[in-house]
Amino acid sequence: MKSKDEKYESIQDFLLEYVKDSKGTVDYALLTDKLRQCFPKSKWNEAHWTQYRKRLINGEIGNLDKGVRDNLVKSTHRISRPPKMKLSKREVETKAIELVKQWLKLQDIDSWECTDNKGYDLETSDEQWIEVKGRSGNSGPVMVYESVFEKNNAQELREKYRIYVVNNVGSQPELIVINPSDDIWSETKIRVLKTNALKGIQPIPL
Question: How far apart are CA 118 and CA 128, in angstroms?
């Protein structure tokens, strides 16, 4: 394999070399980690690997030895994932805040937690006020108390206030950033994100 500083012309070129080097014994999680190092902006997921793997096995791309293709067939059902962590609701929220802080740091943004009941969890060096909502999966309600929402979503503060939703906190976390001024909330005493509000927003892997 090339070093992470060397470039592949395409994901297909990367996969061909990876499969040959591994002699067809492919671990999806390890493959994905390597691929994202080389193609950090890729939207790579399991569906992509399923299609590429099928074409590699059928000989549609590359010229793999029969032994390599046989091993690739055997590894088709050995897609490994990090084990899910069983976390309490409080642990999910705490972990979500830590993940957001780590992600902000990677963007060269400093952040600190608010401890004086301001109605949001983090303040940042680029003047964001962030309410963090963690979820153990990628479904379920995202709720903000109406009084907190109205306070922080006032017209003069709207540019600062954001809601960061962290899905899959205990396994493969991903981040969705919401501008709460958008018309995506149900009108109740507790603001609940509408069912289809996150549709079309591309999650950010953490």
Answer: 13
pLDDT digits (tens, 9 = 90+) for 16-32: 999 999 998 888 888 88
> Which contiguous run of DSSP H or E holds residue 17?
helix 11-21
Name the residue among 120, 125, 136 with its Cα closest to residue 85: 136
Burial class (CB in 10 A: 0-12, 13-18, 19+), 180: middle
Residue with tokens 């069912």: 195
Contact 192, 186 (CB under 8 A): yes
How large is the angle between the packed helices 46-57 and 28-38, nearest 10 degrees?
100
C-alpha to C-alpha distance for 115 and 149, rounded to whole angstroms: 18
Hunting for tokens 């994202």 — which residue is that? 36
Distance, C-alpha 148 to centroid of its chain: 27
